């Protein structure tokens, strides 16, 4: 029996109370810092507002829609799991979208069953799956904060790093996307946090948490493996630095790590390979082809007539083929033309695009600088990022994502392969480098004010775009 409007309103009030309770708990974790707490609450409100006005068939990737009658897409996969309560017993290539690893879809299927068991109407129960992706998104922000603290950020630099991460449009968009992207990215960032913990304290607890997180990231989406090279580097350093006794202990931990992470992360792909002959890295070609453009034009032919991705289906003259431009645009407004929804959005979108480009250029340089040397405090008395192993770790983490993105964009020359969402985790290290940059130039008021003004414009434009998008 479906809930009445009054009963549903009561449920919403209960969820809001739980949300406020969670916010209060997290505020304690943030050590009652008003700016950080305000940033967190703002990010949460933006995401809640976004999923309220975004149905599960709008601004989605590979979802198609629930109850679509075609039996394809990730929404149909969630429905199939909820109905059958078992793994698919057929070649997943026969149903488009069913090849994906299943962690998110199993969680979503269980959540769908719980909602319908409570009497919530089926369509509303499907919409409520966005609650899961919203939670994933906020967990990622919280773990980003914990990483920044562990890297030595505090005060204004910490607040700036969290501000950029929390209000970045990529994670607002994905908070309402019911596919598996957000869970994968969240678990990937959690694996980084616990790997750094393990590097500082090589106990079994941290190695198990790292294994569970990276295995879970791959069980959500195979691109969760992108954290593996950087984590493997930390393992190798600890193995080389330790004595014979420590080396034996570390090898035991590595075996345990493999015994946990590999079965969790690779079970479904290997199952499909063995049972149905599905290649391990199988991915169907989708999206608008852009392979007719040369490699040089896809790098250097920059055409920016709109802050939104250029697509023929949206009335543009060409599909976005320039990879750097597509990377920036899809990170900010996805593949969508928000101006067609509300013309007042476009001025905010232009500010978002321009500030996003400037920040990306500055932070790319900062990435190189702080890979080569530590970050000096404004007074020169203290250095952050002193450990070269940690600097190399972050450089590997960043480089692997960037190389993966470029390889995908050029080897699968479709517009969809240029989407930044595949490597949106790069926002975390870039936010970290932003904090380091502000730490070093804190004593220079002009530079500090310039960076903070740029960041404020970026955040306000992001909030403006995604607030106005929900207005008629």
Give the key terms:
mainly alpha, 66% helix, single chain, two-stranded antiparallel ribbon, 1% strand, 472 residues
Descriptive report:
The chain has about 475 residues and is mainly α. The protein folds into 3 domains: about 1-180, no CATH class; about 180-280, no CATH class; about 285-470, no CATH class. It contains 18 helices and 2 strands. The protein has helices at about 5-30, 35-55, 75-85, 105-115, 120-125, 130-150, 155-165, 170-175, 180-200, 205-220, 230-240, 245-275, 295-300, 325-335, 345-370, 390-410, 425-440, 445-470; strands at about 375, 385. Strands 1-2 form a two-stranded antiparallel ribbon. Strand 1 (about 375) and strand 2 (about 385) form a beta hairpin. Helix 2 runs antiparallel to helix 6, helix 6 (about 130-150) packs antiparallel against helix 8 (about 170-175) and helix 10 (about 205-220) packs parallel to helix 12 (about 245-275). The longest helix has about 35 residues, at about 245-275. The radius of gyration is 22 Å and the shape is globular.
């Amino acid at each position: 029996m479906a809930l009445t409007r009054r009963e549903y309103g009561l449920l919403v009030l209960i969820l809001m109370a739980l949300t406020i309770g969670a916010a209060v708990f997290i505020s304690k974790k943030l050590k009652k810092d008003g700016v950080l707490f305000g940033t967190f609450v703002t990010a949460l409100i933006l995401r809640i507002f976004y999923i309220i006005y975004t149905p599960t068939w709008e601004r989605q990737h590979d979802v198609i829609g629930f109850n679509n009658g075609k039996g394809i897409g990730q929404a149909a996969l969630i429905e199939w799991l909820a109905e059958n309560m078992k793994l698919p017993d057929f070649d997943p290539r026969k149903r488009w979208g069913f090849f994906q690893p299943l962690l998110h879809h199993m969680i979503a299927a269980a959540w769908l069953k719980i909602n319908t068991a409570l009497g919530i109407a089926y369509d509303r129960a499907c919409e409520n799956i966005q609650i899961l992706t919203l939670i994933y998104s906020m967990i990622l922000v919280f773990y980003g904060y914990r990483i920044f603290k562990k890297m030595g950020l505090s005060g204004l630099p910490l607040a700036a790093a969290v501000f950029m991460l929390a209000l970045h449009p990529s994670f607002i968009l994905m908070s309402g996307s019911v596919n598996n992207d957000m869970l994968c990215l969240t678990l990937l960032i959690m694996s980084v946090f616990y790997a750094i913990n393990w590097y500082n304290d090589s106990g079994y607890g941290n190695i198990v948490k790292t294994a569970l997180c990276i295995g879970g990231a791959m069980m959500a989406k195979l691109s969760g493996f992108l954290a593996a090279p950087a984590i493997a580097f930390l393992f190798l350093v600890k193995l080389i630095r330790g004595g014979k006794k420590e080396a034996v202990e570390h090898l035991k931990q590595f075996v345990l790590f493999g015994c946990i992470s590999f079965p969790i992360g690779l079970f479904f792909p290997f199952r499909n390979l063995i049972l149905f002959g599905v290649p391990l890295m199988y991915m169907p070609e989708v999206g608008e082809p852009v392979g007719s453009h040369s490699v040089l034009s896809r790098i250097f032919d920059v055409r920016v007539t709109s802050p939104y991705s250029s697509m023929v289906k949206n009335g543009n003259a060409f599909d976005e083929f320039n990879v750097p431009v597509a990377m920036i645009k899809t990170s900010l407004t996805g593949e969508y033309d928000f101006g067609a929804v509300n013309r007042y959005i476009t001025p905010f979108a232009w500010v978002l695009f321009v500030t996003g480009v400037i920040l990306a250029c500055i932070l790319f340089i900062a990435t190189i600088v702080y890979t080569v040397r530590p970050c000096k405090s404004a007074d020169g008395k203290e250095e952050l990022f002193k450990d070269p192993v940690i600097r190399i770790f972050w450089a590997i983490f960043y480089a692997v994502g960037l190389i993966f993105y470029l390889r995908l964009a050029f080897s699968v020359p479709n517009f969809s392969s240029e989407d930044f969402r595949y490597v949106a985790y790069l926002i975390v290290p870039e936010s970290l480098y932003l904090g380091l940059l502000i730490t070093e130039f804190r004593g220079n008021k002009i530079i500090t004010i310039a960076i903070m003004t740029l960041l404020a414009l970026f955040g306000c434009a992001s909030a403006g775009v995604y607030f106005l998008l929900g207005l008629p």
